Amino acid sequence: MTDEQLSQLESPPAVLLIDDSEFVHRILDSRLRSESISLIGEYDGKAGIERAIQDQPALILLDLDMPVMDGFEALRLLKDDPVTRNIPVIVISGLNSSQDKVTAFDLGAVDFITKPFELTELRARVRSSLKMSALLRMLEQKAQIDGLSGLYNRAYFDDRFQEEYDRSMRHGQPFSIALIDLDEFKQVNDTYGHPAGDMVISGVARLILQQCRNIDIACRYGGEEFVLIMPETTPAQAFTLCERIRAGCEALSWAQHPSRKVTLSCGVIGADDGNSINSTPQALFEMVDRNLYQAKQNGRNQVKASHFDGTPLTISKAG
Amino acid sequence: MSVPDPNTFSLDINDPEDAELIEYFLGELPEKVDFINDAADRVDLESLRRIAHQLKGAAPGFGFPSIGSAAKELEGRIRELGESGEDISSVRAQIESLTSLCQSYISSNPFQK
Fold first, then answer.
1. What are phi and psi of A20, to 5 degrees?
2. pLDDT tens digits, residue range A105-162?
3. Which of A244, A298, B51, B94 is 20 to 30 Å from B62 by CA-CA measure?
4. CB B77 within 8 A of CB B90
5. Cα of A135 to nearest chain B Cα, Å
6. Cβ of B62 and A94 within 8 Å?
7. ipTM of the complex
8. Are A272 and A237 in contact (CB under 8 A)?
9. Nearest of A178, A295, A174, A190 to residue A239 by alpha carbon
10. Residue B93 distance to chain A (closest CA, Å)
């Protein structure tokens, strides 16, 4: 992968400079102007950490000798917080001692630059750290994303399901999941070929993404099955969302087989109040699987939703 | 240490980007000199150490390595004094050479004409 391709992934990456000296801000602003980055700045460790949490920069340049909170303390806190842990930090310092360098690397810095700056070296080090950070981020994403559909993959679902389940239980918030399965999909593959089947998978995935809100987590569970995690969502709301997906799918037309519609069946399970679920994610998944089975049994192309305790939903058809 | 010709910089004053940095640094310098003098009057060694540390790191990048060296001398001297350093007289010489060097640059600032 070339630098050019990398820089196109995100443009331009933010670099956060934390240094108490206005001089350093000024000189880096000028000397890094030619790089395709956006430089943001803070003047002490405390403010720097807050900014890092908020802005999620691609790289942090961190001075050591600062008032309020020194660089080592700031580095320790940055590496302790999961939100900022993976942001690479280059320590910049006028204290050119081996002990400081060792401490900085031990605390998780990726590089160390001494002041006064040697300009070409500074630029090269910034560039190399940004490149590494972009590659790491890409690798991390690749490991979570299903190649064909662009949705999250099964492994990601397993982790995230547990996480969101636990969170909803803790906060007593509504929580729902949906399991979606394309109807008689094998027929599409057999009749029109696997490339046509692949088009259907990615087409339905796109539809799901269009319908989902930001908080929903859409995953490809396997084959022609998709699963949605819907935090802060009652089963009734989840039903409405899934019903839109079902109707949307039925309405899609396919270039490779205009006369063959694709429909889907869907099971939904959830609770209005996460506190009330006295269960496990595994048990919840078995229940959603049963609702999907019901939807298939009842003639496909439909959504079967219920509360985890079996109470039926009151669906308002209005709107 | 010989005083360098204040009209020469380690950056290229004919390069627009370099000139911008030189001009900025020279513009900031009077305030820094005032700050050093105030801190010396108050016998505030921590403030003196901090400003010396900043100038040591920054001045060479703006084209003023001699100011960087003078600041380095001052910072080093204050560090030597350590905790027991309430006697500011032993760093007077370093303060003096740093501020007078800065003054000579300020008085011949080519951007202030």
1. -80, -10
2. 999 999 999 888 888 888 999 999 999 888 888 888 888 999 899 999 999 999 999 9
3. B94
4. yes
5. 31
6. no
7. 0.80
8. no
9. A178
10. 23
